[in-house]
Specification:
35% of the residues lie in helices and 16% in strands. By secondary structure, the chain is of the alpha/beta class. The strands form 11 sheets. It has a 7-stranded mixed beta sheet, sandwiched between helices.
Length: 1483
């Protein structure tokens, strides 16, 4: 607030406190509104017309509306409709700086116009104006000066403003006058008169505020004090008896002002005078002042009048102020750029003087009031002398001219989010780009420089100048004396004048040639127009405000102009706020309007949806010869809106069809092509489904359907049989349900646990003879709910104590009903069972999140009149049987309340279907996947196929950003698939890279991910693209076999670019072990590669290692090469540490087993673990031992509880010694003692390295492994261009980065050029960022509880500032983040880690080993971003000051006592929460 001038802050505060609605045009007030809760403040876009908004908000005559703006030429927009607003309670506060001309043009259009010359008067007049507007129901303009930051303002208390504004107006009556003969003014608003120095304050020279009713009507009246006492007033000098006739309307306005002024006086104890006199009592020269400077110099015979009320002008008071002694009147106004000769106040005063006799009329002069600071009385005397002897028409000046924002307007601020598009324009068109309405032109061209009309005129002018240039070139070509080489040059330019590259190059040659001395008028003209040689890309950029009035905004003129101009219109309305806009304002569809024009290129784009489509549309718009309109979606509310929120809003808008992506190019019609291109996949799929449906219906209704007769007959019989069967089933259900009490079971579930319990309860209810139905909560409305008798609610807890996704709409309905106070559920009998984790929120202040949805649902149903038939049940994951413990207590209450507790259930309850059941029934990975992929009625596959398809390297997912919106619309989730490639060792060829790049565009979302499993991952693949994508991968000699699912995962291998020979040996081992342990999975070839089994399944599947059930859980293998542990070898089920001999060749491995990262929040039976050394093995022995470990895990792993199904738990149950013996017995391998080795890091070595064979390697930084193009970082394009020329390898690192490997010296310059061109060689990042990694998480991962990949870079932006402040810019601190506790980025080995628990909430861990040798430990169980920064800032500072030489952050936090070291996985929970003074107290 200190940046806001006191006058502006004071006026804005009054406007905010007194008004029902505030409207602001970007101005000096904007910073104040930004600092407040803006629930009643509407901030308009820059340059928009405020009149429609003001008219819309001013319909309610009882509401007070305030409009705030700066004095500028833009105020002229108010003038045409200001007369419509003049009879409404509106206050227009205008902050002026310098010239008052822009504001004074509005004076004649409103009943009241008030001026304040200093900050205190601005505050008081703001109060007066607000009360005046409300009591008189008329518009008031209040103009004040911004002043200085040192101005002091005494403000009224906040709680006094509303009573003052709404106090009843008192008008003078006969009784008032009788009781108070000396004052015709009614008693002001105040319970008691405020006195200063023993008398009422506020009356000057017997006139309250310089006004009296008598004066208003042309009569003068004697009076006393305003408190009713006959206090003698000072004697007044004799004044003129001339009067000015006042019409009744003006008299009424003056009376209203007088009443408001007296009320303000009573509140602030300062008089508010229409005009204030000071100086000499009988002056020979009287100066009227209107401006910021208070003229108060002691000059003999000079009087001063400061005017506050300009409309209605108190003419009688002005006439009375001009004493008979005055022979000269000077009107000083801070008005410099008035369009007519005479200024407004000068004309008014001159007109008033006409009411005096000519011989008694003083001479009047006009002068400019400048800055009088530093002037002395002598300077004023000299000014008076100059003015009085000057010609009457001459205008003199007192003080220096005031430079102001009005004179030199500031360039408007461009919201930072708009750079998403402007940077793309700059990137595409470079020096050719010309933004014709760029805000940078405002200081030189004025405020209208940003309007489309101005920009269109500017473009028209430049195009005409280029046409003149062409004519001049042609004129010079006709000169017979022209040299042949010059003639050739000019001719060549004429031919390529529209070519982007050649026109500039040849133009530069022409300029150089002509400047060498060709004497010709055309040559001179060409040089004067030489800037038009190059082809410019001309753009006008605006907002969706233009769409409300296409004519007034100038957009229509651009579309109809026929000029080669491009218009980029940014629509910033968020999708979730689309229904909150004013329904009375209709936004026109600019795209449709432009397309109907017929000769306009139109595109609708969204940079946060499809970057490639934005590029394509902008390039096409630039090439189009004629007007182009590109509609760009950029949904944000403030500059503080996170890019992540923009992404989510964009996805909702595009997915729902609210913002379709398309391109319309009418030039394509001329060549016989389709002009319209629909680029929205979601809309395209829905449209295709509709067309398919229409084609199908058309086929059915043909007179002679082209269907085989046998098919029709068969179909008819089948339908009859099915109808009969269903009728019999319905009749049987009706008979059984006649006497059965109905029970409705509603559930809300994210992970499926609550849904399973609801389905089980429904089955048990039916077994007891009840008529049970089951549905999600969101399918029920209050009207239907009120008609039900018995309802059971089962809900889990999501996020930060929130309802699950499929129950949130229902919860909102309940909240709305509770707010009304009604009781619509008086007939309802209900019971609620809630599921939660009491340890999920361990702090006392967070304890209320435990089972919050269940508790709130139970309470709200009771509030709405419902009756519990069984008490609330709560299931706690911390109980011995989890939620089942509480459920077993609650369920019998249901049966007892319904009277069926004594019913014997003889039929055995079916076992719940598990993943193991699905695998067993899948016939070696087949399931019904093949049929599901052909089913076009859904974007997903069968629930039983979802766990089966994983072993094929595929995950079924859905876009969780739009899940809630789609559910609200009653449509299925936006299903898509994630595909992971099997790439042992992370090595691929340039040809394979090019295919990965292509299929990401053709079948995915345009990007791909380099994962922590050293492979490629594709997201956003819809079902129809799944098979083509897998087939394309296989054509490159890669596959997706077992890249996911319960089998061996992709085998990791250190990249070690400098050790070429060793890498080749280790890489060969990684491929060998991957191939040896790979499942055969012939179903993969059937389903995705269309290869059928021989002789109708005569050849049966056989899995010698896995069997029909495969493994209980995944099995991960990694191979590390000391001293770099980039693979995090200790985090894997099986690990190999390479040992080299004296010649540098691979001798064998130290083999490890038992590592694993997966954890379940709140379940202490789960924990991360580091692997334990088995011993030394040769490569051949290593493969055999790994095979037997797989078999041991297959036969002994926990298949009942998947949460404890990993190898680490198997080893802990067996005991490591027993496990080792079993491996040796089965494999015949005797483990030798482990050989010595050393690790010193687990991060990548970025930059250039030269291998021992002379080849070069470059490790690129790819943040979180996301390969994509974005403004300024076209890394996807860069790597594509490199792959086209590269002859070596691409190595993916386990830290999600990339090594360009085996670059020969001859290839080096071109590779370096491409790296530099695309900025991929930039490694100027902090050590923290280079050492960070994040998993994908939201929106695609179904397990994610919080953001990760999209959020970690934003968090690091803030944390690296702390590091840099403490001198740690280049220090590596390993920081990792995951969206759930499953640990894909191996967070439990990081020095600092964040594991998602809910949106915006993370578990924080500290103390991991820098080279991955030690687990970290939970430091805080739930932290927000604010808490993360609060915790880490002093910790990092202390680390910078107190660390030992070579001490890493993870070691320091243990030594400093923040956290205890973790010795092994089973003790991971011991000492969690911090140590000593840093320990967190749990709930």
């Amino acid at each position: 607030m200190s940046l806001i001038p006191p006058s502006v802050a004071a006026v804005a505060r009054v406007a905010y406190l007194s008004s029902d609605v505030v409207v602001d045009s970007p101005s000096a007030f904007s910073l104040f509104w930004k600092s407040l809760s803006r629930s009643t403040v509407t901030v308009l876009p820059h340059g928009s017309d405020p009149t429609p908004t003001l008219l819309r908000h001013s319909h309610d005559a009882a509401s007070l509306l305030s409009y705030t703006a700066s004095s500028s030429s833009a105020l002229i927009r108010l003038l045409p409709r200001l007369s419509d607003l003049s009879a409404r309670p509106l206050v227009i506060h205008i902050a002026a700086q310098g010239d008052l001309a822009d504001a004074l043009v509005l004076r004649t259009a409103v009943p009241y116009f008030i001026h304040s010359s200093d900050a205190q008067q601005a505050h008081d007049n703001a109060l007066l104006a607000s009360r005046l507007a409300r009591t008189e129901r008329k518009a008031v303009i209040h103009i004040f000066h911004i002043g200085n930051k040192g101005d002091e303002v005494e403000e009224v208390a906040e709680d006094e403003v509303k009573p003052f504004i709404y106090a009843e107006k008192r008008t003078p009556t006969l009784s008032n006058v009788t009781e108070r003969p000396h004052s015709p003014i009614p008693r002001p608003y105040s319970p008691t008169p405020k006195r200063v120095n023993g008398r009422a304050n506020g009356l000057a020279n017997g006139h309250a505020n310089g006004l009296a009713n008598g004066l208003a009507s042309g009569h003068q009246q004697d009076g006393g004090g305003s408190d009713g006492c006959n206090t003698p007033r000072p004697a007044m000098p004799k004044t003129s008896t001339y009067t000015v006739p006042v019409d009744p309307t003006t008299a009424g306005l003056l009376e209203g002002y007088e009443a408001a002024a007296l009320a303000t006086l009573a509140l602030v104890r300062r008089p508010q005078r229409a005009l204030a006199q000071h100086g000499h009592d009988d002056p020979h020269t009287l100066i009227f002042c209107l401006g910021e400077t208070n003229v108060d110099f002691d000059v003999d015979g000079v009087g001063y009048v400061n005017i506050s009320l300009l409309s209605p002008l108190p003419s009688s008071l002005i006439l009375a102020a001009i004493r008979p002694s005055a022979r000269h009147v000077i009107v000083l106004e801070q008005v410099q750029k008035w369009t007519t000769k005479w200024t407004p106040l000068f004309l008014d005063v001159a007109s008033i003087l006409q009411h005096r006799d000519a011989e008694d009329r003083p001479a009047i002069r006009s002068a400019y009031l400048g800055d009088t600071s530093g002037l002395q009385s002598e300077d004023v005397a000299k000014f008076l002398e100059t003015t009085t002897i000057s010609r009457p028409s001459a205008r003199t000046q007192l003080g220096a001219s005031i430079t102001s924002s009005s004179t030199v307007p500031e360039a408007p601020h461009i919201p930072k989010h708009e750079s998403s598009y402007t940077r793309i324009l700059s990137h595409l068109f470079g020096e050719r780009l010309e933004i014709s309405n760029s805000p940078s032109q405002v200081p030189s061209q004025g405020e209208f420089a940003t309007s489309p009309e101005f920009a269109l005129g500017r473009i028209r002018g430049t195009l005409e100048e280029r046409a003149e240039l062409i004519k001049a070139v042609q004129a010079l070509l006709r000169d017979p004396k022209l040299l042949p080489e010059v003639h050739s040059l000019l001719s060549r330019w004429i031919l390529v004048k529209d070519d982007v590259t050649q026109s500039q190059q040849i133009g530069d040659e022409i300029i150089a040639t002509l400047r060498s001395g060709i004497d010709h008028p055309a040559a001179t003209r060409i040089l004067s127009l030489c800037e038009h040689f190059k082809v410019k890309s001309r753009w006008i950029i605006g907002s969706d405000v233009w769409s409300y009035d296409l004519g007034a905004s100038g957009l229509h003129h651009a579309i109809a102009s026929g000029l080669n101009v491009n218009v980029l219109v940014l629509d910033t309305l968020p999708y979730t706020a689309r229904n909150t806009s004013d329904p009375s304002r209709r936004k026109h569809d600019i795209g449709l309007y432009a397309m109907n024009h017929g000769d306009v290129y139109v595109a609708s784009v969204a940079v946060y949806s499809s970057y490639a489509q934005v590029l394509q549309a902008l390039v096409e718009a630039d090439k189009f010869d004629g007007p182009s309109v590109v509609l760009a979606y950029l949904p944000y509310t403030t500059e503080d809106t996170l890019a992540l929120d923009l992404l989510k809003e964009t996805k909702l808008a595009v997915d729902s069809g609210y913002w379709p992506l398309y391109r319309w190019d009418p030039s394509k019609e001329a060549v016989g092509k389709e002009p319209f291109s629909l680029d929205s996949d979601a809309v395209k799929n829905d449209l295709q489904a509709f067309l398919d449906r229409q084609n199908h219906l058309s086929q059915l209704v043909r007179a002679k359907p082209l269907l085989p007769a046998e098919l029709v007959t068969s179909l008819g019989e089948t339908v009859k049989a099915e109808r009969k069967r269903r009728a019999q089933q319905a009749y049987a259900e009706l008979l059984s349900g006649i006497d059965a009490p109905p029970l409705l079971i509603l559930y809300a579930s994210d992970g499926g646990a609550a849904e399973k319990k609801a389905k089980r309860l429904a089955g048990r209810a039916q077994a007891r003879g009840l008529s049970a139905t089951i549905a999600t909560m969101d399918t029920m409305n209050l009207d239907s709910l009120s008609r039900e008798e018995h309802i059971v609610f089962i809900t889990s807890t999501s996020g930060q104590g929130e309802a699950p996704q499929n129950g949130r709409t229902f919860f909102k309905l309940l909240n709305a009903a509770v707010a009304t106070g009604s009781k619509p559920l008086t007939k309802l009998k209900y019971s609620v069972f809630g599921m939660g984790d009491s340890h999920y929120w361990p702090r006392p202040e967070d304890a209320h999140h435990y089972n919050r949805p269940g508790k709130e649902l139970d309470a709200k149903l009771a509030t709405l009149g419902g009756e519990r038939f069984a008490d609330l049940g709560l299931g706690d994951d911390q109980d011995a049987d989890g939620a089942e413990t509480g459920y077993k207590v609650w369920e019998p209450r249901i049966w007892k309340a319904l009277g069926v507790d004594s019913v014997q259930v003889l039929e055995a309850e079916p076992e719940p279907i598990t993943v193991e059941h699905a695998k067993a029934a899948s016939l070696y990975g087949r399931g019904t996947i093949a049929d599901g992929l052909e089913d076009t009625s859904t974007g997903g596959i069968a629930a039983g196929d979802a766990p089966v398809i994983r072993i094929h390297g595929v995950y079924l997912q859905d876009d969780r950003d739009v899940r809630g919106e789609r559910e609200a619309q009653g449509i299925e989730p936006a299903y898509d698939f994630m595909i992971r490639v099997r790439l042992p060792g992370g090595v691929c060829t340039p040809a394979q890279w090019l295919v990965m790049d292509r299929i990401a565009d053709e079948y995915g979302n345009g990007t791909f991910k380099l994962t922590t499993r050293q492979t490629f991952q594709f997201h956003g693949v819809i079902k129809k693209n799944l098979k083509p994508l897998v087939q394309a991968i296989n054509r490159t000699l890669l596959d997706t076999l077992a890249a996911c699912g319960d089998a061996i995962r992709n085998v990791l291998c250190s990249t070690i670019p400098s050790l070429s020979k060793l890498h080749a040996q280790v890489y060969a081992f990684s491929k060998a072990i991957s191939e040896h342990l790979l499942p055969r999975l012939t179903a993969y070839h059937e389903i995705f590669l269309d290869k059928k089994l021989v002789a109708g399944e005569a050849l049966k599947d056989f899995e010698p290692l896995y069997g029909p059930m495969y493994l209980p859980r995944k099995l991960k293998i990694a191979i590390a090469v000391p001293p770099t542990n980039d693979v995090d070898v200790y985090a894997h089920d099986i690990g190999f540490i390479a040992i080299v001999n004296e010649h540098g060749d691979l001798a064998g491995f130290n083999m490890l087993a038992g590592g694993g990262m997966g954890v379940t929040h709140g379940n202490r039976k789960t924990y991360p673990s580091t692997s334990t050394t088995l011993g030394f093995v040769t490569p051949e022995q290593g493969i055999m031992a790994a095979e037997k470990i797989l078999i041991i895990q297959r036969d002994n792993g926990n298949r009942v509880d998947r949460k404890t199904g990993r190898l680490k738990y198997t080893i802990d149950r067996m005991g490591f010694g027993t496990f080792k013996e079993e491996v040796e017995k089965l494999s015949g391998v005797q483990f030798l003692p482990a050989r010595p080795y050393t690790f010193d890091r687990n991060v990548d070595d970025f930059g250039w390295e030269t291998g021992e064979d002379g080849d070069h390697h470059f490790t690129c930084f790819i943040e979180n492994g996301r390969v994509q193009d974005e403004p300024g970082r076209d890394f996807k394009t860069a790597l594509r261009e490199i792959a086209k020329i590269h002859k070596g390898e691409f190595r993916l690192t386990p830290n999600q980065h990339l090594v360009l490997s085996k670059i020969p010296t001859a290839e080096l310059p071109e590779i370096k050029r491409l790296l530099a061109h695309y900025k991929l060689d930039n490694l100027n990042y902090t050590g923290l960022r280079l050492s960070s990694s994040a998993c994908v998480a939201l929106p695609t991962c179904g397990l994610a509880m919080a953001e990760s990949e999209r959020y970690l870079p934003l968090l690091i932006d803030k944390l690296e500032k702390i590091c840099e402040e403490n001198g740690l810019r280049n220090d590596s601190i390993v920081m990792r983040m995951t969206g759930c506790p499953n640990g894909c980025t191996r967070p439990y080995l990081a020095e600092v880690a964040f594991v998602g628990k809910a949106i915006g909430a993370y578990m924080m861990l500290l103390g991991g080993g820098y080279y991955g040798q030690r687990l970290n430990k939970i430091y805080r169980e739930s932290v927000s971003e604010r808490e993360i920064l609060t915790i880490l800032e002093p910790m990092i500072k202390r680390y910078a000051l107190e660390r030992l030489d070579g001490e890493h952050f993870g070691d320091f936090v243990i030594r400093a006592g923040y956290i205890a070291a973790t010795t092994d996985g089973k003790t991971w929970y011991e000492g969690m929460g911090g140590e000593g003074p840093y320990r967190e107290i749990s709930a």
